[in-house]
Design a protein that fits this description.
The protein is of the alpha/beta class and 295 residues long. 45% of the residues lie in helices and 14% in strands. The chain is globular, with a radius of gyration of 18 Å. Bound molecules: zinc ion.
């Protein structure tokens, strides 16, 4: 039976420290609005008994002391300190949101999205520093009695996979196998095709899983067109999984639910749809941890 997975890169403003987009989202009230939106989404998961993978940024749930950032490359360290000092609490502190996810009646799979969301392709980010980053992310989750199995790389820039097994992870989401050019990506979207999610063996027994697609459309002029195209990609991806012709794994950020027009409603009807497919025996809905454990 084909499998369907949703993973969420749970990061608030941490994911856009380098490009500063968090400022625009903060000014637009996206992170504050997420406090109203997330309970609605979680209720849908409870109603349909669906578990997702929440890859969480450690520093978002464990406020970092300056020394906790000492392993980061210098420019990232400076930008991160400025972000923590200069952003609203709702932009960098997600403990309230994380508690909501932990308290969801249908247990959710909690994974890691690193500690400080530094891209692993950042120049000067050494293997030793990545080991500290991975260990700190685990320690942040363990304060909530969570032992994570799954790891998601910032911006899907994956490298130094062997570090993850050392930190106790069993499965990592790597980049989807997609066309490299913009034209190729456009053709892919127009044709409605998406790459299947593939599981392969990495170093030291780590499971590596490619995702299929980012589940979000734009917030500006073209969003309605992109929504139609993404809706079609998802329908076709699910149909392919139901025919057992490849697993389908989509991902998004929780804040997208508060920012992207129509995404909350679309995601709730998607949860309902995949739950019906599961109940008819057409697909399995699995978390990343499920895949690592069942492999
Ligand atoms: Zn991210």
């Amino acid at each position: 039976m084909g499998q369907f997975t949703i993973s969420l890169d749970f990061e608030l403003g941490w994911g856009s420290i380098e490009n500063g987009i968090w400022r625009r989202r903060e000014a637009a009230g996206v992170y504050r609005e997420l406090r109203n939106v997330l309970p609605v989404f979680l209720k849908a998961l409870e109603d349909h008994e669906v578990s997702l993978t929440w890859a969480t940024v450690g520093a978002m749930i464990d406020p970092p002391r300056p020394s906790d950032l000492g392993h980061l490359p210098e420019p990232i360290k400076t930008a991160t300190r400025a972000f923590v000092a200069g952003s609203e609490r709702e932009t960098h502190d997600g403990r309230d949101l994380f508690e909501m996810v932990l308290n969801t009646r249908t247990p959710q799979d909690i994974g890691s999205h690193t500690f400080a969301h530094c891209r692993w392709s950042t120049p000067g980010f050494s293997v030793e520093a990545k080991e500290i980053e991975a260990a700190q992310s685990v320690a942040a989750l363990e304060k909530f009695d969570v032992t994570p199995n799954a790891f998601v790389y910032p911006l899907n820039h994956y490298s130094d996979l062997e570090v993850l097994r050392g930190a106790g992870f069993q499965i990592a989401r790597t980049a989807p196998r997609r066309p490299s050019t913009r034209l190729g990506k456009l053709i892919e979207m127009l044709s409605g095709s998406t790459p299947a999610s593939e599981l392969s063996a990495g170093p030291r027994g780590l499971n590596c899983e490619t995702g299929s697609m980012l589940y979000v459309w734009g917030i500006r002029n073209d969003w309605r067109v992109r929504k139609i195209l993404i809706d079609r990609q998802i329908r076709l991806g699910l149909r392919r999984a139901a025919r057992d012709e490849g697993d389908f794994h989509i991902w998004l950020h929780p804040f997208n639910l508060a920012e992207t027009p129509g995404l909350l409603e679309h995601s709730i009807s998607l949860i309902s749809k995949v739950a019906r497919m599961r109940d008819r025996g057409e697909i399995d809905i699995v978390t990343m941890a499920d895949k690592a454990i069942n492999r």
